[in-house]
Amino acid sequence: MKLFLLVTISLCVLYSQAIHGIVINDITVPNLVTISRNDSNDTINLDCDYELSDNEPNLLVKWFMNNKLIYQWIRGHEPAVLPYFRDFIELSKTSDEPDHEYRGLTLTNINIQLNGTYRCSVHTGAQYKSMEKDLHIVDISDDEISFNDRKVQNETHLECTVSNIFPKPILTLVSDNPNTVITMDKANVVLRENAHFDASLTAVAQNADGSDNFDCYVSFEGLPFNISAKAEADELNENADSGALNVNTQTVVNILFVIVTLLMF
């Protein structure tokens, strides 16, 4: 009998909480955003998907970055952005429903200052719930990567350098030959004044048979993203060739225009 009463009371409490409370289903915060030469992420949309019980008299939604309040919205009022974050938030409606109008926010002027942990908290008169996720920003918009390999007697000396990159990079030297043994030195990583990093790594490869294809990979701890030094070099060369072709085409057009003009007179 006591067990039955205990179970009944527990179910009543759970039912009451389900009817009179807050449920945060999920928050939308991208795990990884890259800032590169070719891709421009003008904005990042964050959203807080929650449910409220009917007739909640009060509603307050707050957003924090790294435990610092950046944004808040009281139902029935315009949202407010904290002064130190106004350059990074673009105000816009998330929904036409009164309980969800400004629950999310749009980040703008994307740069590494926005890298961090974002938390949405939802408050009513009696309850409070929150959820947080990490936003990782990788900035390769102005980085430089170089890789060199040279034969020295029976060994191949490898060197990889990367500059002006964020976050802190991890360098790895590899070969497509499974029999090649690569002994890497300790990487040298330096923090720049602009909060980006420079890094370099040297290594010696043994048992290379002359047909090895070496490469340097740049990765970041905990992130599903890496860069191949050779692939980036090929891309830069391709862009340079494309630019030269455009310049040459424009030059030809200009010359033809001059010739036609002279013939007319």
Count of strand segments = 18
* CATH topological fold name of the largest domain: Immunoglobulin-like
CATH superfamily of the largest domain: Immunoglobulins
Low-confidence stretches: 4-19, 240-247
Total count of domains:
2
Average predicted local confidence, pLDDT? 85
Gyration radius from CA atoms, angstroms: 28 Å
- Cα distance, first to last residue? 112 Å
Strand order of the largest sheet: 2-10-9-4-5-6
Signal peptide: 1-18
Pfam family, one: V-set_CD47
Keywords: Signal
Protein name: Ig-like domain-containing protein
State the gist of this model.
With 265 residues, the protein is α+β, with helices and mostly antiparallel strands.
Characterise this structure.
The protein is an alpha+beta fold and 265 residues long. It has 2 helices and 18 strands. The longest helix has 36 residues, at 229-264. The relative contact order is 0.12. Residues 4-19 and 240-247 have low confidence and may be disordered. This is Ig-like domain-containing protein. Residues 30-136 form the Ig-like domain. InterPro entries: CD47_Vset, Ig-like_dom, Ig-like_dom_sf, Ig-like_fold. Pfam families: V-set_CD47.
